[in-house]
Design a protein that fits this description.
Elements (H helix, E strand, L loop, with lengths): L2 E10 L2 E11 L4 E5 L6 H8 L7 E6 L2 E2 L8 H6 L1 E4 L11 H10 L5 H14 L15 H13 L5 E5 L7 H16 L3 E6 L2 H7 L2 E6 L2 E4 L5
Parallel strand pairs: 3-8, 3-9, 6-7, 7-8
Antiparallel strand pairs: 1-2, 1-4, 4-5, 9-10
Length: 222
């Protein structure tokens, strides 16, 4: 299993947010996690990059376990994950190239390797011609493509996309979904959280619904 959650419970101040969560993500899967705002989708993602540890149960991501991981190991886990946020989280004072390159600088990569990898992923997301542009010069869809490039540049085994189309219009949202599906088709597993059921129907992968603190696999009506 690429990801395995066993009997997960998360509670804050004696209030249970997630309860009895059990599911797996296999290598190469595309999984949509659906649920209303505040249902716990972001909390579940935080468990996977271990920004949040479960109150009880075990989260396993690749070779890492929430039972044994140390604070010094967490950066190494996160280098194996690509994380895409709804609100982009780009560095406003750096151009497109440098925003993507930043993810490699922290790993100690050399300048030649950085240049090659950054140009490769910018080409993959259709933005190599915008490498010198600043974030404020880009549309929302273009900014999200930069985020996807940044998530890809360390060649992760899993992409975590947290409401990646939440700030985008419907047409741009479908373009971003297609890009994520293309990435998945090349072998990278994707977990996408969303409350947009139209996108989920188009994704056609495994669908997990989070409701009342529980997660279960569902089938959507066409």
């Amino acid at each position: 299993m690429l990801v395995q959650l066993d009997d997960i419970r998360v509670a804050f101040n004696h209030h249970t947010v997630l309860n009895n969560i059990n599911f797996v993500i296999e290598p190469g899967e595309f999984v949509s996690l659906v649920g209303e705002s505040g249902a716990g989708k972001s909390s579940l993602l935080r468990l996977l990059y271990m920004d949040l540890l479960p109150t009880s149960g075990v989260v396993s991501v690749g070779e890492f376990s929430s039972k044994t991981i140390t604070s010094s190991q967490i950066p190494f886990l996160r280098r194996k994950l690509g994380i895409i946020f709804q609100d982009f989280k780009l560095l406003d004072d750096r151009n497109v190239f440098d925003n993507v390159a930043f993810a490699l600088h922290v790993t100690g990569a050399g300048s030649d390797e950085i240049k090659k990898k950054v140009i490769t992923v910018l080409t993959q997301v259709g933005l190599s011609h915008k490498r010198n542009a600043m974030p404020h010069q880009l549309s929302g869809g273009e900014q999200q493509r930069v985020c996807i490039a940044r998530a890809l540049v360390n060649e992760p085994f899993l992409i975590l996309a947290d409401e990646p189309t939440g700030n985008l219009d419907p047409g741009t949202s479908h373009d971003i979904l297609k890009l994520l599906l293309d990435i998945n088709a090349r072998g990278t597993a994707v977990l996408m959280t969303t409350h947009n059921y139209d996108l989920v129907r188009k994704a056609q992968g495994k669908i997990m619904q989070i409701k009342d603190g529980n997660v279960r696999e569902v089938q959507l009506k066409q």
